[in-house]
């Protein structure tokens, strides 16, 4: 290795160090430090929760065993009384005694049998979780898991590229005894490996270059019951509606190009994972779903239950998006009807919208199905955030992941998708109110509203679209009457500011058939109250906690796929310094690689 060190650079991230070849033979992206840090934080919380769940299960089984033993103790007295009262029929009495004896022995054997857990341990001890990194490349993620996550078991790193596996094995040795004892590297197709190791791993991590769709079917089979699947998708152009037909072929959902497209990408990915899990009588429970930088990342628990799987249609919906304004509506796929203790599963009622939008009269585009149930578990989010804050020195990207988790902790969990205040104002061609004023109006109308981690301008609310447009109509009317010589009676429009100090920004004229003109032509039914509400600012905003941070450096985004030749056309991805440095290195090596041939007397083409 000493001879080749001039071709390598040492990269340190967290407690792991790797040797990276400067020729782009193995993929590495510095920007994914956010992804790796967040994965480590969730993995630490998973191990803690897993231990708590195992302790609760042992306690429950112990109580069941105690109840069974108490029942066994009272059994002989009942048997003796029944024997004395039935001496006249010895044969039938003997048969009854045998039957009772067997029925008493069964719970006794359960109580005396050592408790088994999901890993097959007969002593009630929980084995360390096994982790599979299906697409390891340099192995940096697997090495960080092994060196930084306390209580972790074996980490299996896979790749079907020989150069990547050799680099991973080299990095395992480079990181010392802890990495050598915990991390394995194999040259294998991840799909085949996961299919041949069903329900064997407590955690499966998928972080492919592009779409994870081809790995999902085998991944949901490889996770143990109650295990965790971590999945990344970087094909955002497809998931966000750039190629809707491609998205449908890969994920089984049709995307829409709205301001909420990145959250819709998360929900499409979750719906696809649920679809693959359902084929094996399994279902998922999302614990954290994040959109960061140029990718989406979801963390889900996988469980097995044929009865719970029936609830899947209740968690999926189609989306109707108006092509003229920002109105959108969700159509659930299924519904339930309860009668006594029985539950019937039925198709959902529909359609939820008329042929034309009730707000602007335009047509609807239809997308989906998407996951319309909560995409986060707020208890998990709080636990992960507390763990990150307590170990802030161990996360290189602490500022970024703590900001994202803080914003997620304040999201409305039961409201799919979101609105953009600037888009609403663009439709009406009016000046935008501040987020605080708009939030106050929604809260004063009796509805909930929050931000979203996906977009700093996005607003999640359970208010229906007719209420949203009524608030905007009232805002436009308020702004259009500011500088009248004699102010009219505006008792129904309560403002938190002095109207005489507001600049006059009238609504720009539109054609009568435009969506904005049609919306403003209607009289508002709701009289908006713009007085500042107490909850108009979130706790993080009130404390002035940073929630949306800029990228730490330029060209912080996706990188070139491993093995491709770096040229000047990749400056937008890698930056001029990286590209020029690589090209200069190639030029310096060129005389060695392509040394001119010396003249040969026997060669007729050589000049004398």
Automatic annotation (TrEMBL):
CDD domains reported for this sequence: AdoMet_MTases
Origin: domain of life: Eukaryota
PROSITE patterns documented for this protein: SAM_MT_TRM1
Keywords, sorted A to Z: Metal-binding, Methyltransferase, RNA-binding, S-adenosyl-L-methionine, Transferase, tRNA processing, tRNA-binding, Zinc
GO molecular function: metal ion binding; tRNA (guanine(26)-N2)-dimethyltransferase activity; tRNA binding
Key word Transmembrane helix present: no
A Pfam family that the UniProt record links to this protein: TRM
Function: Dimethylates a single guanine residue at position 26 of most tRNAs using S-adenosyl-L-methionine as donor of the methyl groups.
NCBIfam families: TRM1 (TIGR00308)
Protein name (record): tRNA (guanine(26)-N(2))-dimethyltransferase
Species of origin: Salix dunnii
